[in-house]
Amino acid sequence: MAAAVTRRFGLFHSGTDFAYISRVKIEGDTVMTPTPPVLSDQELHQLITEDVPFGDLTTDSLGISAAPGRLRFFARDPMVVCGVEEAVRLLQLCGAQAEGVTPSGSEASTETLLLEAAGGAGALHRGWKVAQTLVEWCSGMATGAAEILAAARRGHPDALVAGTRKNAPGSRRLAVKAFRAGGAIMHRNGLSETLLVFAEHRLFLGGERPQETIRRLRRQCPEKRVVVEVATPEEALQWADADVLQLERFAPEAVAEVTAALAARGAETIVAATGGINAGNAEAYARAGARLLVTTAPHLAPPRDVQVRFLT
Predict the structure, then answer these.
(1) How confident is the model at residue 36 (pLDDT cuts 50, 70, 90)?
(2) Domain 5-140+302-311, classified CATH 3.90.1170.20, yes or no
């Protein structure tokens, strides 16, 4: 029988340092591992200030700010959870005592308790909607990424799903966390750490042969893989010396054609498919030979529904 596992995580104080700790209880033993939010306190304060710039007029006017209360977040529908750590810290910054129950990356069924908080009604109302929205939005992305990965793995067990950097501006840290919570990896976190040659780059290369361009990049960045995006099977074969060929908006049949042609040449190039990848077609692309599926779809996934219950 599998060991019973319960989780609680929150903010603990040790000396002068604060640390976020995940407490995992396995058959009577508690193992603690850090689970930090990806947003700083300053960034979380900015989210709070955006929603409560001059105080909570309704709660203050009712005179109930100091009244003690509790709130709990529940998954209304099945989801892959993400953003609970940030929501917990945000509620703490509002003045509540908050503790996470279900950490990011967990699969939650309907009615799963995600987090709980206690404090004055003023503190709870300040953080309630921002924390709820954050968890709903991040969990939507995480669930979307998990659905695409599950489909891709039906096509090939080694298929990987990679998230693009087409996040809403300013939200990249949360987007990266959500993709990873769903089991995906990141295609690029930004322009600074990856080599990806687009047609828009090649416009400026004059008549340089593809092989020479790839050699130059390998000399300049010997520790990096060279990735080239192509738009046709003919371009794919011209750039077959790249470490990764990124096939832009190829049909699965065209992916299979390129994969077969590379194999016939003995090339060890990794084939990535991008453009319109979603849970409905990921299996077909993986089955066609694409081992890396690059997708924007989770960025546009609908938020998952989180129910918030107040208690006195």
Answers:
(1) confident
(2) yes
Distance between terminal CA atoms of the chain? 39
For the chain, domain boundaries = 5-140+302-311, 147-300
Task: Please give the Cα distance from 96 to 114 (Å, whole number).
Answer: 16
Which one is the CATH code of 147-300: 3.40.50.1820, 3.20.20.70, 3.40.630.10, 3.20.20.120?
3.20.20.70
| Strand-strand pairing, 226-230 and 195-197 | parallel
What's the one-letter identity of residue 307? Q
Starting at the edge strand found earlier in the chain, the sheet holding 160-163 runs: 185-186, 160-163, 292-295, 270-274, 244-248, 226-230, 195-197
**Residue 238 phi/psi, 5° resolution?**
-65, -35
Per-residue pLDDT, averaged over 203-231, amounts to 97
What percent helix, strand, coil does the chain show, rounded to 5? Answer: 40, 30, 35
Structure-token match 């209360």, residue found = 69
Of the candidates 217, 76, 59, the residue with the CA atom closest to the CA atom of residue 140: 76
Q: Would you mind telling me the total number of residues written for the chain in this entry?
A: 312
Pairwise CA distance, residues 132 & 236, whole Å: 45
The model's pTM is 0.89
Neighbours of 218 (CB within 10 A): 16
- The single-letter code of the amino acid at 14 is S
165-186 pLDDT per residue, tens:
999 999 999 999 999 999 999 9
What is the Cα–Cα distance from 180 to 68, expressed in whole angstroms? 37
